[in-house]
Specification:
Keywords: Membrane, Transmembrane, Transmembrane helix. The chain has 497 residues and is mainly α. It has one domain. It is built from 21 helices and two strands. A two-stranded antiparallel ribbon has the order 1-2. The model has no long low-confidence stretch (mean pLDDT 78).
Length: 497
């Protein structure tokens, strides 16, 4: 209880409360605009957090994250174009409701389900993160190395269904993070004689280029279809309490699915939403109406995808392992502001942990108010011409990339990362493992070196540690599973002539 009071005291400042409101507003706006999404929203505000205090910076990031996941449902309902991938399942029933003239009711269902899902996930975070952190106190450098490999493989394995490209992208991230001064030996690595490169590739301009600028380049290279016109009356109307009673079990089940999926590295809110929607379509008493404007579909998808926002912080805070690209960027921000996620965070800075819990609760409550009062205003953002929107994104991104260190090299890095990101996306390579690789690189490298010191250079001794061995075995199974599955299918359907 004392820790909770300390956490509440941390956020009870004008700056932090303003950051919560502004972050949520920005997040919902970014979510409403199709094609931007949570990562680009976080990327755009990230550089500005370095001029803020610790708690306001964390509040701003969490507000943008949670708000953007919810915001995608508004455009999914109004124009049948999900603002974020997480809201794709919401469009299946949200848009048919809008066509019936019930866009305001659909937004009411989505807003309430999103807030309830988000609050449920905070409860999961409060209960699970300390337990996981306590267990991880048994970890040495060897277990941390195995955990880093496991996290990297997990994220690569779900990368758009292509493990090979996901692994290559992750390895590229590990390589990029190794550029610069070796802090152990003092040697320069891959700097090609450039003194400026001795500091390495900064995460912020790299992320800005990979996500924000590559999106601008992608849109400039493709012919875009005209935006759908908004032909429905948009407002906000909460469903009656009697409408919730038969859906409480569906809501609880969807929140549970979203929270569980969120704790798994590399899965994300879009996966949770579709799993929950499929389960609702299988078990809902109204399953015959799903896809035709049934609120069950909105409740299932929105409660699940927003339940990810809190639970995805479980591995991030407890183990220092980012669960997705968004938490990878936030992890870097936490470290810069003197907060090092992991087991020690819960023993040395428990007040900060509880402050994060309280911020997440506040963000979800503010999100409800923002959705209720601003539904009509947010739909007007859909009318912004795309060239103007992309210009705004590019200007804000570059200003932010330059403003972190005031170094012109960061602009070059951002442009270079944008070109690399554009090429990777065109080639079907996912960007998420690359960013995760950059974030995990230092931990993996340092843990490997420290582990080898503990075992006197014997890498095979790593496999004598039970926890590390279990993580290595799981990692290996994840790697070979696609091959085993392909062989099984081939054997099953192969018929000798």
């Amino acid at each position: 209880m004392d820790a909770f009071v300390l956490g509440l005291d941390h956020i009870a400042t004008v700056q932090t409360l303003m950051a919560i409101v502004i972050g949520t507003l920005v997040g919902v706006t970014v979510g409403v605009l199709p094609g931007l999404g949570s990562v680009i929203g976080i990327t755009m505000v990230l550089p500005f957090t370095f001029a803020m205090g610790q708690m306001p910076a964390i509040a701003l990031m969490l507000g943008v994250y949670c708000g953007s996941v919810y915001g995608g449902s508004i455009s999914a309902i109004v124009i049948n174009t999900p603002g974020t991938p997480q809201a794709a399942a919401t469009a299946l029933d949200g848009f048919p409701m809008a066509q019936r003239g019930e866009a305001d009711l659909a937004i009411g269902w989505a807003t309430a389900a999103s807030v309830l899902g988000g609050l449920f996930s905070v409860i999961v975070l409060i209960l699970a993160a300390p337990q996981l952190a306590a267990f991880s106190l048994n970890f040495t450098a060897i277990e941390n190395f195995a955990l880093g490999c496991f996290a990297l493989i997990c994220i690569a394995s779900v990368s758009q269904g292509n493990m090979a490209k996901g692994l290559m992208s992750g390895v590229l991230g590990l390589f990029v993070a190794s550029i610069g001064l070796d802090h152990v030996t003092g040697d320069m690595r891959f700097t090609f004689g450039s003194f400026q490169m001795a500091a390495g590739i900064s995460l912020i301009p790299a992320v800005v280029g990979l996500f924000a600028l590559s999106e601008v380049f992608i849109r400039a290279s493709e012919a875009r279809l005209p935006k759908p016109e908004i032909t429905h009356k948009v407002g906000f109307r909460l469903p009656a309490l009697r409408e919730w009673k038969p859906r409480l079990w569906l809501l609880l089940k969807s929140c549970t699915i979203g929270s569980f999926v969120g704790t798994l590295p590399g899965t994300g809110a879009a996966t949770a939403a579709f799993i929950s929607y499929s389960e609702a379509r299988r078990t809902s008493p109204n399953r015959e109406n799903m896809g035709k404007g049934e609120p069950d579909g909105i409740v299932a998808s929105e409660s699940a995808n927003n339940a990810v926002t809190g639970s995805v912080m479980v591995p991030t805070l407890a183990l220092g392992i980012p669960g997705d690209p968004v938490t990878a960027v936030m992890l870097g921000t936490l470290i810069v502001h003197g907060v090092t996620p992991g087991p020690r965070l819960f023993s040395e800075n428990i007040d900060i942990v509880y402050a994060i819990f309280v911020i997440l609760i506040a963000v979800n409550l503010v999100m409800f108010v923002v959705g209720a009062l601003g539904a009509q205003a947010f739909t007007r953002a859909l009318r912004i011409p795309e060239p103007l929107l992309m210009t705004m994104v590019m200007v804000v991104a570059l200003l932010g990339a330059y403003g972190v260190r005031g170094n012109a090299l960061d602009l070059i890095i951002a442009f270079g990362a944008g070109i690399v990101g554009f090429a990777l996306r065109k080639g079907g390579f996912p960007l998420a493992p690359l960013v995760i690789g950059m974030v995990l690189s230092q931990m993996i490298e340092n843990s490997l070196r420290q582990g080898l010191l503990l075992t006197r250079g014997d890498f095979f001794a790593f496999f004598e540690r039970p926890i590390a061995l279990a993580l290595f075995v799981i990692t290996f199974l994840i790697l070979v599973w696609p091959l085993l599955r392909a062989l099984w299918v081939r054997r099953r359907y192969w018929k000798p002539s």
